[in-house]
Amino acid sequence: MSIIQMKNVDLYYDKHHALKNITGEINERSITALIGPSGCGKSTFLRTLNRMNDMIQGVHIEGEILVAEQNIYHADVNVENLRKNIGMVFQQPNPFPKSIYDNVAFGRRIHGMRDRKELDEVVEQSLKAAALWEEVKDILKKPAYGLSGGQQQRLCIARALAVNPQILLMDEPTSALDPISTAKIEELIGELRKQYTIVIVTHNMQQAARISDDTAFFLQGEIIEFDTTEKIFHTPSDQRTEDYIAGRFG
Amino acid sequence: MNEAVLKNARNRSTQNQSQKKTSGIVQKKRMNREDFVVKSILFLCAMVSILTTIGIVAVLLVETLSFFKDVSLLAFLTDTKWTPLFKPEHFGILALLSGSVLITLGASLVALPLGLMTAIYLSEYADDRVRRVIKPILEVLAGIPTIVYGYFALTFVTPLLRVISPDMGVFNALSASIVVGIMILPMVASLSEDAMVSVPKSLRNGAYSLGATRLEVARKVVVPAAFSGIISSFVLAISRAIGETMIVTIAAGATPKLTLNPLESVQTMTAYIVQVSLGDIQHGSIEYKTIFAVGMTLFILTFLINLIAQWLKRRFKEEY
Protein backbone atom coordinates (compact mmCIF):
# COMPACT_ATOMS: atom_id res chain seq x y z
CA MET A 1 0.00 0.00 0.00
CA SER A 2 1.55 3.29 -0.98
CA ILE A 3 1.03 6.31 1.24
CA ILE A 4 3.04 8.86 -0.75
CA GLN A 5 2.96 9.28 -4.52
CA MET A 6 5.22 11.64 -6.40
CA LYS A 7 4.06 12.69 -9.86
CA ASN A 8 6.54 14.50 -12.12
CA VAL A 9 8.00 16.65 -9.38
CA ASP A 10 10.41 19.36 -10.49
CA LEU A 11 12.11 21.74 -8.09
CA TYR A 12 14.09 24.87 -8.87
CA TYR A 13 16.33 26.97 -6.65
CA ASP A 14 15.91 30.20 -8.62
CA LYS A 15 17.31 29.05 -12.00
CA HIS A 16 18.97 25.85 -10.75
CA HIS A 17 16.97 22.74 -11.65
CA ALA A 18 17.54 20.69 -8.46
CA LEU A 19 14.96 17.90 -8.84
CA LYS A 20 13.99 16.56 -12.23
CA ASN A 21 10.78 14.73 -12.93
CA ILE A 22 10.66 12.72 -9.70
CA THR A 23 8.03 10.01 -9.93
CA GLY A 24 7.42 7.07 -7.62
CA GLU A 25 5.60 5.67 -4.65
CA ILE A 26 6.52 5.20 -1.02
CA ASN A 27 4.97 2.28 0.85
CA GLU A 28 3.14 2.57 4.11
CA ARG A 29 4.82 1.17 7.24
CA SER A 30 8.07 0.54 5.48
CA ILE A 31 11.50 2.10 5.46
CA THR A 32 12.55 3.82 2.27
CA ALA A 33 16.18 4.81 1.96
CA LEU A 34 17.34 7.65 -0.30
CA ILE A 35 20.95 7.24 -1.39
CA GLY A 36 23.23 9.06 -3.77
CA PRO A 37 26.32 11.27 -3.81
CA SER A 38 26.43 14.71 -2.13
CA GLY A 39 24.37 17.33 -3.90
CA CYS A 40 22.27 14.78 -5.78
CA GLY A 41 19.01 16.21 -4.40
CA LYS A 42 18.04 13.51 -1.90
CA SER A 43 17.77 15.91 1.07
CA THR A 44 16.00 18.47 -1.09
CA PHE A 45 13.52 15.79 -2.09
CA LEU A 46 13.01 14.75 1.53
CA ARG A 47 12.14 18.35 2.42
CA THR A 48 9.55 18.53 -0.33
CA LEU A 49 7.58 15.85 1.53
CA ASN A 50 6.81 18.09 4.54
CA ARG A 51 7.17 21.35 2.63
CA MET A 52 10.21 22.50 4.59
CA ASN A 53 11.48 23.93 1.31
CA ASP A 54 8.80 26.60 1.63
CA MET A 55 11.15 28.31 4.11
CA ILE A 56 13.87 28.75 1.54
CA GLN A 57 13.63 31.83 -0.64
CA GLY A 58 13.56 31.29 -4.37
CA VAL A 59 12.30 27.70 -4.32
CA HIS A 60 9.71 26.82 -6.94
CA ILE A 61 8.04 23.43 -7.25
CA GLU A 62 6.05 21.84 -10.06
CA GLY A 63 4.19 18.54 -10.19
CA GLU A 64 2.22 16.78 -7.49
CA ILE A 65 3.00 14.98 -4.28
CA LEU A 66 0.07 13.03 -2.92
CA VAL A 67 0.05 12.02 0.72
CA ALA A 68 -2.91 9.79 1.56
CA GLU A 69 -4.35 10.81 -1.83
CA GLN A 70 -4.22 14.56 -1.13
CA ASN A 71 -1.92 16.85 -3.09
CA ILE A 72 0.15 18.53 -0.38
CA TYR A 73 1.01 21.43 -2.72
CA HIS A 74 -2.61 22.35 -3.24
CA ALA A 75 -3.31 25.99 -2.31
CA ASP A 76 -5.67 25.23 0.59
CA VAL A 77 -3.43 22.74 2.42
CA ASN A 78 -2.79 23.59 6.07
CA VAL A 79 0.99 23.36 6.13
CA GLU A 80 1.28 23.30 9.93
CA ASN A 81 -1.09 20.36 10.10
CA LEU A 82 0.80 18.60 7.33
CA ARG A 83 4.07 18.97 9.24
CA LYS A 84 2.39 17.70 12.37
CA ASN A 85 1.51 14.51 10.51
CA ILE A 86 4.88 14.20 8.80
CA GLY A 87 7.61 14.43 11.42
CA MET A 88 11.25 15.17 10.70
CA VAL A 89 14.59 14.35 12.26
CA PHE A 90 17.61 16.33 11.15
CA GLN A 91 21.24 15.60 10.45
CA GLN A 92 22.55 17.42 13.51
CA PRO A 93 20.64 16.78 16.73
CA ASN A 94 18.76 20.05 17.30
CA PRO A 95 17.04 19.91 20.69
CA PHE A 96 15.65 23.23 21.93
CA PRO A 97 17.61 24.92 24.72
CA LYS A 98 14.98 23.76 27.19
CA SER A 99 14.53 20.83 29.54
CA ILE A 100 14.20 17.28 28.26
CA TYR A 101 10.54 17.33 29.26
CA ASP A 102 9.82 20.65 27.53
CA ASN A 103 11.49 19.43 24.36
CA VAL A 104 9.23 16.41 24.07
CA ALA A 105 6.13 18.33 25.16
CA PHE A 106 6.81 21.23 22.77
CA GLY A 107 4.84 19.94 19.80
CA ARG A 108 1.82 18.90 21.82
CA ARG A 109 1.78 22.20 23.67
CA ILE A 110 1.71 24.29 20.49
CA HIS A 111 -1.10 22.08 19.25
CA GLY A 112 -3.10 22.97 22.33
CA MET A 113 -2.50 20.29 24.95
CA ARG A 114 -2.45 21.96 28.38
CA ASP A 115 -3.36 19.20 30.82
CA ARG A 116 -0.34 18.25 32.91
CA LYS A 117 -1.31 14.57 33.24
CA GLU A 118 -1.90 14.13 29.52
CA LEU A 119 1.44 15.80 28.77
CA ASP A 120 3.24 13.58 31.28
CA GLU A 121 1.74 10.58 29.53
CA VAL A 122 2.77 11.76 26.06
CA VAL A 123 6.31 12.55 27.22
CA GLU A 124 6.71 9.13 28.81
CA GLN A 125 5.27 7.24 25.82
CA SER A 126 7.37 9.18 23.32
CA LEU A 127 10.59 8.74 25.26
CA LYS A 128 9.85 5.03 25.61
CA ALA A 129 9.17 4.75 21.88
CA ALA A 130 12.51 6.46 21.23
CA ALA A 131 14.28 4.04 23.63
CA LEU A 132 15.41 6.92 25.82
CA TRP A 133 13.05 6.70 28.81
CA GLU A 134 15.24 4.51 31.03
CA GLU A 135 18.19 6.86 30.59
CA VAL A 136 16.37 10.12 31.29
CA LYS A 137 13.33 9.35 33.45
CA ASP A 138 15.01 10.83 36.54
CA ILE A 139 16.40 13.93 34.84
CA LEU A 140 13.39 15.14 32.85
CA LYS A 141 13.77 18.67 34.22
CA LYS A 142 17.44 18.89 33.27
CA PRO A 143 18.55 20.76 30.14
CA ALA A 144 18.57 18.67 26.98
CA TYR A 145 22.05 19.96 26.17
CA GLY A 146 23.48 17.88 28.98
CA LEU A 147 22.75 14.70 27.00
CA SER A 148 25.26 13.01 24.70
CA GLY A 149 24.93 13.46 20.93
CA GLY A 150 23.27 10.07 20.48
CA GLN A 151 20.85 10.73 23.31
CA GLN A 152 20.05 14.16 21.87
CA GLN A 153 19.22 12.59 18.54
CA ARG A 154 16.91 10.05 20.20
CA LEU A 155 15.36 12.98 22.09
CA CYS A 156 14.70 14.66 18.75
CA ILE A 157 13.07 11.44 17.54
CA ALA A 158 10.94 11.38 20.70
CA ARG A 159 10.03 15.03 20.11
CA ALA A 160 8.92 14.19 16.58
CA LEU A 161 6.95 11.12 17.73
CA ALA A 162 5.17 13.10 20.45
CA VAL A 163 2.88 14.86 17.97
CA ASN A 164 1.75 11.49 16.62
CA PRO A 165 2.92 11.67 13.02
CA GLN A 166 2.17 8.97 10.48
CA ILE A 167 5.29 9.51 8.45
CA LEU A 168 8.78 10.17 9.76
CA LEU A 169 11.41 11.84 7.57
CA MET A 170 15.03 11.41 8.61
CA ASP A 171 17.82 13.42 7.04
CA GLU A 172 21.05 11.51 7.67
CA PRO A 173 20.11 11.06 11.33
CA THR A 174 23.27 9.21 12.30
CA SER A 175 25.93 11.04 10.31
CA ALA A 176 26.98 13.13 13.33
CA LEU A 177 27.03 10.17 15.73
CA ASP A 178 29.51 7.55 16.91
CA PRO A 179 29.07 3.88 15.89
CA ILE A 180 27.41 2.80 19.15
CA SER A 181 24.83 5.59 19.04
CA THR A 182 24.32 4.83 15.35
CA ALA A 183 23.59 1.18 16.13
CA LYS A 184 21.05 2.23 18.76
CA ILE A 185 19.28 4.57 16.38
CA GLU A 186 19.22 1.95 13.62
CA GLU A 187 17.70 -0.53 16.03
CA LEU A 188 15.14 2.08 17.02
CA ILE A 189 14.28 2.81 13.39
CA GLY A 190 13.68 -0.92 12.88
CA GLU A 191 11.25 -0.85 15.82
CA LEU A 192 9.46 2.24 14.53
CA ARG A 193 8.75 0.65 11.18
CA LYS A 194 5.88 -1.30 12.78
CA GLN A 195 3.88 1.90 13.29
CA TYR A 196 5.35 4.54 11.02
CA THR A 197 6.29 5.08 7.43
CA ILE A 198 9.94 6.11 7.43
CA VAL A 199 11.87 7.87 4.69
CA ILE A 200 15.54 8.15 5.48
CA VAL A 201 18.34 9.92 3.64
CA THR A 202 21.66 8.27 4.21
CA HIS A 203 25.22 8.60 3.02
CA ASN A 204 26.02 5.22 4.41
CA MET A 205 25.16 2.47 1.94
CA GLN A 206 25.57 -0.30 4.49
CA GLN A 207 22.99 1.51 6.60
CA ALA A 208 20.56 1.61 3.70
CA ALA A 209 21.17 -2.09 3.04
CA ARG A 210 20.76 -2.99 6.73
CA ILE A 211 17.57 -1.18 7.59
CA SER A 212 15.53 -0.30 4.53
CA ASP A 213 12.85 -2.14 2.57
CA ASP A 214 13.05 0.05 -0.52
CA THR A 215 15.82 2.20 -1.87
CA ALA A 216 15.84 5.12 -4.27
CA PHE A 217 19.11 6.04 -5.93
CA PHE A 218 19.43 9.75 -6.74
CA LEU A 219 21.92 11.24 -9.15
CA GLN A 220 22.04 14.88 -10.26
CA GLY A 221 18.45 15.57 -9.30
CA GLU A 222 16.97 12.47 -10.88
CA ILE A 223 15.86 9.15 -9.47
CA ILE A 224 17.97 6.69 -11.42
CA GLU A 225 16.48 3.61 -9.85
CA PHE A 226 13.82 3.02 -7.21
CA ASP A 227 13.10 -0.54 -6.18
CA THR A 228 13.30 -2.97 -3.28
CA THR A 229 16.56 -2.70 -1.36
CA GLU A 230 17.22 -6.33 -2.18
CA LYS A 231 17.05 -5.62 -5.90
CA ILE A 232 19.04 -2.36 -5.77
CA PHE A 233 21.91 -3.88 -3.85
CA HIS A 234 22.08 -7.25 -5.57
CA THR A 235 20.77 -6.98 -9.10
CA PRO A 236 20.50 -3.28 -9.99
CA SER A 237 19.18 -2.72 -13.50
CA ASP A 238 21.07 0.51 -14.17
CA GLN A 239 24.82 0.51 -14.64
CA ARG A 240 25.15 3.79 -12.68
CA THR A 241 23.41 2.28 -9.66
CA GLU A 242 25.76 -0.67 -9.77
CA ASP A 243 28.79 1.61 -10.03
CA TYR A 244 27.65 3.72 -7.08
CA ILE A 245 26.85 0.71 -4.90
CA ALA A 246 30.20 -0.81 -5.75
CA GLY A 247 31.87 2.42 -4.66
CA ARG A 248 33.22 3.29 -8.11
CA PHE A 249 32.11 6.90 -7.60
CA GLY A 250 30.37 8.85 -4.93
CA MET B 1 83.96 7.58 -11.02
CA ASN B 2 81.94 10.47 -12.13
CA GLU B 3 78.96 8.91 -10.48
CA ALA B 4 80.80 8.47 -7.20
CA VAL B 5 81.77 12.12 -7.17
CA LEU B 6 78.25 13.17 -7.85
CA LYS B 7 76.96 10.95 -5.08
CA ASN B 8 79.48 12.38 -2.65
CA ALA B 9 78.56 15.87 -3.63
CA ARG B 10 74.91 15.10 -3.16
CA ASN B 11 75.57 13.59 0.23
CA ARG B 12 77.51 16.60 1.32
CA SER B 13 74.87 18.97 0.13
CA THR B 14 72.13 17.13 2.02
CA GLN B 15 74.35 17.11 5.07
CA ASN B 16 74.86 20.82 4.71
CA GLN B 17 71.16 21.33 4.36
CA SER B 18 70.38 19.30 7.42
CA GLN B 19 72.98 21.23 9.36
CA LYS B 20 71.46 24.46 8.19
CA LYS B 21 68.03 23.30 9.25
CA THR B 22 68.94 22.17 12.73
CA SER B 23 70.85 25.31 13.60
CA GLY B 24 68.50 28.23 14.19
CA ILE B 25 65.42 26.35 15.34
CA VAL B 26 66.26 27.03 18.94
CA GLN B 27 67.64 30.48 19.62
CA LYS B 28 68.58 32.18 22.83
CA LYS B 29 65.98 34.47 24.23
CA ARG B 30 66.65 38.13 23.66
CA MET B 31 65.29 40.74 26.06
CA ASN B 32 62.36 41.81 24.02
CA ARG B 33 62.21 45.51 24.68
CA GLU B 34 59.61 46.18 22.03
CA ASP B 35 57.15 43.82 23.70
CA PHE B 36 57.68 45.50 27.04
CA VAL B 37 57.17 49.01 25.67
CA VAL B 38 54.03 48.10 23.73
CA LYS B 39 52.58 46.30 26.70
CA SER B 40 53.21 49.27 28.98
CA ILE B 41 51.64 51.76 26.61
CA LEU B 42 48.56 49.60 26.15
CA PHE B 43 48.31 49.16 29.90
CA LEU B 44 48.41 52.93 30.41
CA CYS B 45 45.62 53.33 27.85
CA ALA B 46 43.51 50.86 29.76
CA MET B 47 44.27 52.67 33.00
CA VAL B 48 43.04 56.02 31.67
CA SER B 49 39.42 54.92 31.59
CA ILE B 50 39.67 53.01 34.85
CA LEU B 51 41.31 55.90 36.69
CA THR B 52 38.78 58.35 35.28
CA THR B 53 35.96 56.19 36.56
CA ILE B 54 37.58 55.90 39.95
CA GLY B 55 38.12 59.66 39.98
CA ILE B 56 34.49 60.36 39.13
CA VAL B 57 33.20 58.00 41.79
CA ALA B 58 35.63 59.51 44.33
CA VAL B 59 34.51 63.09 43.61
CA LEU B 60 30.88 62.00 43.72
CA LEU B 61 31.44 60.28 47.05
CA VAL B 62 33.32 63.14 48.68
CA GLU B 63 30.84 65.82 47.62
CA THR B 64 27.88 63.60 48.43
CA LEU B 65 29.22 62.90 51.92
CA SER B 66 29.73 66.58 52.48
CA PHE B 67 26.16 67.17 51.27
CA PHE B 68 24.89 64.74 53.87
CA LYS B 69 26.67 66.69 56.61
CA ASP B 70 24.18 69.48 55.97
CA VAL B 71 21.11 67.45 55.04
CA SER B 72 20.03 64.31 56.81
CA LEU B 73 19.73 61.14 54.74
CA LEU B 74 16.26 60.62 56.17
CA ALA B 75 15.08 64.02 54.91
CA PHE B 76 16.71 63.35 51.55
CA LEU B 77 14.85 60.07 51.14
CA THR B 78 11.48 60.97 52.67
CA ASP B 79 10.84 64.65 52.02
CA THR B 80 8.44 65.08 49.13
CA LYS B 81 9.61 68.51 47.99
CA TRP B 82 12.78 69.50 46.17
CA THR B 83 13.41 73.22 46.51
CA PRO B 84 17.13 73.75 47.16
CA LEU B 85 17.24 76.98 45.21
CA PHE B 86 14.75 79.02 47.23
CA LYS B 87 13.41 79.26 50.77
CA PRO B 88 12.16 77.25 52.52
CA GLU B 89 14.72 74.75 51.30
CA HIS B 90 13.63 71.16 50.86
CA PHE B 91 15.85 68.31 49.73
CA GLY B 92 13.45 65.47 48.98
CA ILE B 93 14.98 63.43 46.16
CA LEU B 94 11.64 61.67 45.62
CA ALA B 95 10.37 64.70 43.73
CA LEU B 96 13.18 64.40 41.18
CA LEU B 97 13.26 60.62 41.28
CA SER B 98 9.58 60.42 40.41
CA GLY B 99 10.24 62.64 37.39
CA SER B 100 13.00 60.35 36.16
CA VAL B 101 10.98 57.22 36.90
CA LEU B 102 7.94 58.63 35.16
CA ILE B 103 9.87 59.51 32.01
CA THR B 104 11.75 56.19 31.99
CA LEU B 105 8.59 54.21 32.56
CA GLY B 106 6.78 56.01 29.77
CA ALA B 107 9.72 55.65 27.41
CA SER B 108 9.99 51.94 28.22
CA LEU B 109 6.29 51.44 27.59
CA VAL B 110 6.83 52.91 24.12
CA ALA B 111 10.20 51.42 23.24
CA LEU B 112 10.36 47.93 24.73
CA PRO B 113 7.24 46.38 23.17
CA LEU B 114 7.63 48.26 19.89
CA GLY B 115 11.34 47.51 19.73
CA LEU B 116 10.82 43.83 20.47
CA MET B 117 8.08 43.56 17.87
CA THR B 118 10.22 45.35 15.31
CA ALA B 119 13.03 42.91 16.04
CA ILE B 120 10.71 39.91 15.69
CA TYR B 121 9.41 41.29 12.41
CA LEU B 122 12.90 41.85 11.05
CA SER B 123 14.35 38.54 12.14
CA GLU B 124 11.40 36.20 11.55
CA TYR B 125 9.04 37.75 9.03
CA ALA B 126 10.75 40.31 6.80
CA ASP B 127 12.43 39.01 3.68
CA ASP B 128 16.05 39.84 3.05
CA ARG B 129 15.43 42.86 0.85
CA VAL B 130 13.24 44.60 3.46
CA ARG B 131 15.70 43.81 6.22
CA ARG B 132 18.59 45.20 4.24
CA VAL B 133 16.75 48.53 3.96
CA ILE B 134 15.30 48.83 7.46
CA LYS B 135 18.30 47.72 9.53
CA PRO B 136 20.62 50.56 8.41
CA ILE B 137 17.82 53.09 8.85
CA LEU B 138 17.43 51.96 12.46
CA GLU B 139 21.13 52.38 13.01
CA VAL B 140 21.04 55.91 11.57
CA LEU B 141 18.10 56.78 13.83
CA ALA B 142 20.17 55.67 16.82
CA GLY B 143 22.72 58.32 15.89
CA ILE B 144 20.45 61.39 15.81
CA PRO B 145 21.60 64.01 18.37
CA THR B 146 19.24 64.13 21.31
CA ILE B 147 18.84 67.90 21.05
CA VAL B 148 17.01 67.27 17.76
CA TYR B 149 14.69 64.85 19.52
CA GLY B 150 14.14 67.49 22.20
CA TYR B 151 12.95 70.06 19.67
CA PHE B 152 10.87 67.39 17.97
CA ALA B 153 9.15 66.79 21.33
CA LEU B 154 8.55 70.46 22.05
CA THR B 155 7.53 71.68 18.61
CA PHE B 156 5.77 68.66 17.16
CA VAL B 157 4.67 66.05 19.71
CA THR B 158 3.51 68.48 22.40
CA PRO B 159 1.27 70.53 20.07
CA LEU B 160 -0.16 67.27 18.74
CA LEU B 161 -0.91 66.04 22.27
CA ARG B 162 -2.49 69.37 23.12
CA VAL B 163 -4.92 68.93 20.27
CA ILE B 164 -6.08 65.73 21.93
CA SER B 165 -5.96 67.06 25.48
CA PRO B 166 -6.11 70.90 25.35
CA ASP B 167 -5.61 71.58 29.06
CA MET B 168 -2.20 69.95 29.02
CA GLY B 169 0.75 72.27 29.72
CA VAL B 170 3.43 73.16 27.19
CA PHE B 171 5.92 71.28 29.32
CA ASN B 172 4.74 67.81 30.26
CA ALA B 173 6.15 64.40 31.04
CA LEU B 174 4.08 62.61 28.42
CA SER B 175 5.57 64.29 25.39
CA ALA B 176 9.10 63.88 26.73
CA SER B 177 8.63 60.22 27.58
CA ILE B 178 7.13 59.40 24.18
CA VAL B 179 10.08 61.01 22.46
CA VAL B 180 12.66 59.44 24.77
CA GLY B 181 10.92 56.17 23.89
CA ILE B 182 11.29 56.92 20.18
CA MET B 183 14.94 57.74 20.77
CA ILE B 184 15.75 54.40 22.44
CA LEU B 185 13.51 52.30 20.19
CA PRO B 186 16.08 51.74 17.42
CA MET B 187 18.58 50.56 20.00
CA VAL B 188 16.14 47.99 21.39
CA ALA B 189 15.11 46.85 17.91
CA SER B 190 18.58 46.62 16.50
CA LEU B 191 20.25 44.88 19.45
CA SER B 192 17.34 42.48 19.99
CA GLU B 193 17.36 41.63 16.32
CA ASP B 194 21.08 40.87 16.49
CA ALA B 195 20.38 38.48 19.36
CA MET B 196 17.53 36.78 17.50
CA VAL B 197 19.36 36.41 14.21
CA SER B 198 22.16 34.59 15.99
CA VAL B 199 19.77 31.88 17.20
CA PRO B 200 20.71 28.84 15.08
CA LYS B 201 18.46 28.09 12.12
CA SER B 202 18.34 24.43 13.13
CA LEU B 203 16.24 25.36 16.17
CA ARG B 204 13.70 27.12 13.99
CA ASN B 205 13.60 24.13 11.63
CA GLY B 206 13.02 21.83 14.57
CA ALA B 207 9.98 23.83 15.59
CA TYR B 208 8.62 24.26 12.06
CA SER B 209 8.91 20.52 11.49
CA LEU B 210 6.60 19.96 14.47
CA GLY B 211 3.95 22.13 12.85
CA ALA B 212 4.69 25.42 14.60
CA THR B 213 3.54 28.65 12.96
CA ARG B 214 5.88 31.58 12.45
CA LEU B 215 4.52 33.30 15.52
CA GLU B 216 4.97 30.18 17.64
CA VAL B 217 8.53 29.78 16.43
CA ALA B 218 9.23 33.42 17.30
CA ARG B 219 7.53 33.35 20.70
CA LYS B 220 8.45 29.90 21.94
CA VAL B 221 11.84 29.26 20.39
CA VAL B 222 13.58 32.38 19.13
CA VAL B 223 12.70 34.90 21.86
CA PRO B 224 13.49 32.49 24.74
CA ALA B 225 16.78 31.48 23.11
CA ALA B 226 17.72 35.12 22.53
CA PHE B 227 16.45 36.21 25.93
CA SER B 228 19.73 37.29 27.43
CA GLY B 229 20.54 39.46 24.42
CA ILE B 230 17.06 40.96 24.49
CA ILE B 231 17.38 41.77 28.20
CA SER B 232 20.74 43.40 27.53
CA SER B 233 19.16 45.63 24.91
CA PHE B 234 16.36 46.54 27.34
CA VAL B 235 18.83 47.44 30.07
CA LEU B 236 20.97 49.56 27.80
CA ALA B 237 17.87 51.35 26.57
CA ILE B 238 16.49 51.93 30.07
CA SER B 239 19.85 53.20 31.27
CA ARG B 240 19.92 55.63 28.38
CA ALA B 241 16.38 56.76 29.18
CA ILE B 242 17.30 57.45 32.81
CA GLY B 243 20.44 59.28 31.81
CA GLU B 244 18.76 61.16 28.96
CA THR B 245 19.13 64.90 29.51
CA MET B 246 18.44 67.07 26.48
CA ILE B 247 14.93 65.88 25.66
CA VAL B 248 13.69 66.13 29.23
CA THR B 249 15.34 69.48 29.82
CA ILE B 250 13.62 70.92 26.79
CA ALA B 251 10.23 69.24 26.89
CA ALA B 252 9.45 67.96 30.37
CA GLY B 253 9.70 71.22 32.28
CA ALA B 254 11.51 72.32 35.44
CA THR B 255 9.09 71.65 38.25
CA PRO B 256 10.25 68.92 40.65
CA LYS B 257 7.07 67.24 41.72
CA LEU B 258 6.17 63.96 43.40
CA THR B 259 3.66 62.77 40.84
CA LEU B 260 3.09 59.95 38.43
CA ASN B 261 0.69 61.96 36.31
CA PRO B 262 2.26 62.21 32.85
CA LEU B 263 0.21 65.26 31.89
CA GLU B 264 2.01 67.45 34.39
CA SER B 265 5.27 69.29 34.11
CA VAL B 266 8.03 67.52 36.05
CA GLN B 267 11.78 67.67 36.45
CA THR B 268 14.14 64.74 36.16
CA MET B 269 17.40 64.32 38.03
CA THR B 270 19.41 64.99 34.89
CA ALA B 271 17.44 68.11 34.01
CA TYR B 272 18.01 69.44 37.53
CA ILE B 273 21.74 68.96 37.20
CA VAL B 274 21.67 70.93 33.94
CA GLN B 275 19.65 73.71 35.52
CA VAL B 276 22.03 74.09 38.44
CA SER B 277 25.16 73.73 36.34
CA LEU B 278 24.03 76.54 34.06
CA GLY B 279 23.07 78.87 36.92
CA ASP B 280 25.51 80.99 38.94
CA ILE B 281 25.84 78.78 41.96
CA GLN B 282 28.60 79.37 44.42
CA HIS B 283 31.25 76.65 44.51
CA GLY B 284 30.97 74.71 47.77
CA SER B 285 27.50 75.95 48.61
CA ILE B 286 24.72 73.53 49.50
CA GLU B 287 23.09 74.14 46.10
CA TYR B 288 26.37 73.15 44.49
CA LYS B 289 26.55 69.97 46.53
CA THR B 290 23.02 68.92 45.62
CA ILE B 291 24.06 68.08 42.07
CA PHE B 292 26.55 65.55 43.41
CA ALA B 293 23.95 63.96 45.65
CA VAL B 294 21.60 63.78 42.66
CA GLY B 295 24.38 62.41 40.48
CA MET B 296 25.13 59.76 43.07
CA THR B 297 21.46 58.74 43.14
CA LEU B 298 21.49 58.45 39.36
CA PHE B 299 24.63 56.37 39.51
CA ILE B 300 23.18 53.99 42.11
CA LEU B 301 19.97 53.67 40.12
CA THR B 302 21.67 52.56 36.90
CA PHE B 303 23.91 50.28 38.93
CA LEU B 304 20.85 48.61 40.47
CA ILE B 305 19.25 48.15 37.07
CA ASN B 306 22.39 46.46 35.84
CA LEU B 307 22.34 44.12 38.83
CA ILE B 308 18.72 43.20 38.18
CA ALA B 309 19.54 42.56 34.54
CA GLN B 310 22.41 40.27 35.49
CA TRP B 311 20.07 38.32 37.71
CA LEU B 312 17.37 38.12 35.03
CA LYS B 313 19.88 36.87 32.50
CA ARG B 314 21.11 34.13 34.81
CA ARG B 315 17.61 33.16 35.81
CA PHE B 316 16.16 32.78 32.31
CA LYS B 317 19.21 31.90 30.29
CA GLU B 318 18.75 29.29 27.57
CA GLU B 319 22.08 28.14 26.24
CA TYR B 320 22.53 26.86 22.75
UniProtKB/TrEMBL annotation, chain A:
One GO term (biological process): phosphate ion transmembrane transport
This protein's record includes keyword Isomerase: no
CDD domains noted in UniProt: ABC_PstB_phosphate_transporter
Predominant cellular place of this UniProt entry's protein: membrane
GO terms assigned for molecular function: ATP binding; ATP hydrolysis activity; phosphate transmembrane transporter activity
Protein location: Cell inner membrane
Name of the molecule in the record: Phosphate transport system ATP-binding protein
Record organism: Croceifilum oryzae
TrEMBL record, chain B:
Region (Disordered) location: 1-27
Localization annotation: Cell membrane; Membrane
Membrane topology type: Multi-pass membrane protein
Superkingdom, taxonomy of origin: Bacteria
Chief localization: membrane
Keywords (A to Z) from UniProt: Cell membrane, Membrane, Phosphate transport, Transmembrane, Transmembrane helix, Transport
Gene Ontology process terms (BP): phosphate ion transport
Domain ABC transmembrane type-1 positions: 97-309
Cross-referenced InterPro entries: MetI-like, MetI-like_sf, Phosphate_PstC
GO cellular component: plasma membrane
Compositionally biased residues, Polar residues: 11-25
Membrane-spanning intervals of the chain: 36-62, 91-116, 137-157, 169-191, 221-242, 291-312
GO molecular function, one term: phosphate transmembrane transporter activity
UniProt entry tagged with the keyword Calcium: no
The protein's role, per its UniProt record: Part of the binding-protein-dependent transport system for phosphate; probably responsible for the translocation of the substrate across the membrane.
Assigned protein family: Belongs to the binding-protein-dependent transport system permease family. CysTW subfamily.
Protein name, entry field: Phosphate transport system permease protein
Species this chain originates from: Croceifilum oryzae
